[in-house]
Amino acid sequence: MVLVTGNGASILFTMYKIIGADGKEYGPITANQLRQWVTQGRTNALTQVRPEAESEWRPLGTLSEFTDALAQPPSFPNLPPPAPVPARTSGLAIASLILGPCGILSCGISSLVGIILGIVSLTQISKSQGRLKGQGLAIAGIIVSAFFILMMPAMMIPAFAKARAKAQSITCMNNAKQLAVAVVIHAQANTNSCPPAATWCDAIQPEISMTSVFQCPAGDKTHQSHYAYNAKLSGLNLDDVKNPAQTVLFFETDGGWNLSGGSELLPRKMRHNHGVVVGFVDGHVEVVPESRLSQLQWEP
Questions:
Q1: Which residues touch 117 (CB under 8 Å, ≥6 apart)?
Q2: Which of 144, 159, 174 lies at the terminal end of a domain, its last residue?
Q3: Is residue 37 classed exposed, middle or buried when 0-12, 13-18 and 19+ CB atoms within 10 A define those classes?
Q4: Is residue 81 part of a domain?
Q5: Phi, psi (degrees; rounded to nearest 5) at 283
Q6: Fewer CB within 10 Å, N or C, the chain?
Q7: What is the rounded distance in angstroms from the CA atom of residue 130 to the CA atom of residue 55?
Q8: Closest of 129, 119, 118 to residue 87, by C-alpha
Q9: What is the pLDDT of residues 252-290, one digit of tens each?
Q10: Calpha distance 106→28 (Å, rounded)
């Protein structure tokens, strides 16, 4: 209690103590100050309070003298609005743009993923209410990814064609190698003599495992054989060949069974990258470029 005397009048004030949110005791304070704290939101109906003259703590809401203050919503100082959160760039949009060009290394698989991620990112951006950005990146990713998918066949066809031509060249060289081995086997069984030019295919056919060995995979399939025999070797003893590493044994031709002769039978159109597969008497095989065909040795 506080007694205030002024102009001969006495006014009695009740002082209060409270327990703050931190558990500490505060006061004594006047009823007006306590009402102000209620208005400021520093205290509420659950705040423990007691008149200074009493020993019992009670919730502030049980004291009738503060009912009017508690009925009013607390007022807070005017605070500036929170700063807007800057929109972040969609990671899926970035990934879409990166994966698009990678399709050239993954046969288009990553480009397909890039299109999917681009579409998903556009959906997320439109639903983010401004929290996500990167719509342009997503659209660019979709376009770039689609471009590489559409371009993939144009880029892959030449590669496949090159690989196919390489495989055909290797098969043709293996065929010529097997034909050369067959000639050696035939010669060993015939006093070391080469097969006759007129029937060389028939003569060595028993030594060939498959008839497809006589055919170049790039040749005209209507012909039974795509190789010709150097007629100069007909019936010749292999030991009499002076330079077997340079002397022609077999060579590609346009097609025909038991064909034999010389350079006049070389194919009109080169089947293996502007070159002709040639097997030599010593057993080795080469793809001889067109520029060197005139240098081939036919005379044993």
A1: 92, 93, 95, 96, 99, 141
A2: 159
A3: buried
A4: no
A5: 105, -10
A6: N
A7: 57
A8: 129
A9: 999 999 999 999 999 999 998 889 999 999 999 999 999
A10: 79
Contact 202, 258 (CB under 8 A): yes
Same domain, 57 and 175: no
Same-domain check for residues 167 and 262: yes
**Adjacent-strand bridge partners of 280:** 248
Per-residue pLDDT of the chain (300 residues; tens, 9 = 90+): 545 445 544 445 678 888 888 888 888 888 888 888 888 888 888 889 988 888 888 888 888 888 887 777 766 556 566 667 788 888 888 988 898 788 777 777 888 888 898 899 888 888 888 888 888 888 988 898 888 888 777 766 777 778 888 889 999 999 999 999 999 999 999 999 999 999 999 999 999 988 899 999 999 999 999 999 999 999 999 999 999 999 999 999 999 999 999 999 999 999 988 899 999 999 999 999 999 999 999 999
Q: How many CB atoms lie within 10 A of CB 261?
A: 16
Q: Could you tell me if 182 and 135 are in contact, meaning their C-beta atoms sit under 8 angstroms apart? A: no
The CATH code of the domain that includes 31 is 3.30.1490.40
Domain membership of residue 142 as a residue range = 88-159
Strands (E), the chain: 2-6, 9-13, 15-19, 25-30, 48-51, 58-59, 88-89, 132-133, 227-230, 248-252, 260-261, 275-280, 285-289
Question: Are both 271 and 207 inside the same structural domain?
Answer: yes
Q: What is the pLDDT of residues 207-258, one digit of tens each?
A: 998 889 999 999 999 999 999 999 999 999 999 999 999 999 999 999 999 9
